[in-house]
Amino acid sequence: ARRATTMELLHDKYFNEEPLPVPVSELRVPLTRNTEDEDSVGGWQDYNDMGSDSDFDDFGPVSFTRTGTGFSIQFP
User: Fold this and answer.
1) Which UniProt keyword terms apply here (predicted)?
2) Do β-strands 70-74 and 63-67 pair in parallel, antiparallel, or remain unpaired?
3) Residue 73 lies in a domain
4) Which CA distances in Å does 38 have to 29, 31, 48?
5) Which residue range(s) make up the domain with 66?
């Protein structure tokens, strides 16, 4: 097996197609969990109760901003 060249990768569909089935501008995140949502394990901040060994506390605050082409996530 050989490695792909840079030019081959630049023309690969992985880098040319929109990765989501809908535009980013149409994605919605519910503000709160309702009682009908039984599949949800909890709110966005309930990660500590899930038994995860991830170091989410090291990230600190998170800032989400819409941009002209999608969104930006910043860890100030």
Assistant:
1) Kinase, Transferase
2) antiparallel
3) yes
4) 16, 16, 19
5) 1-26+57-76
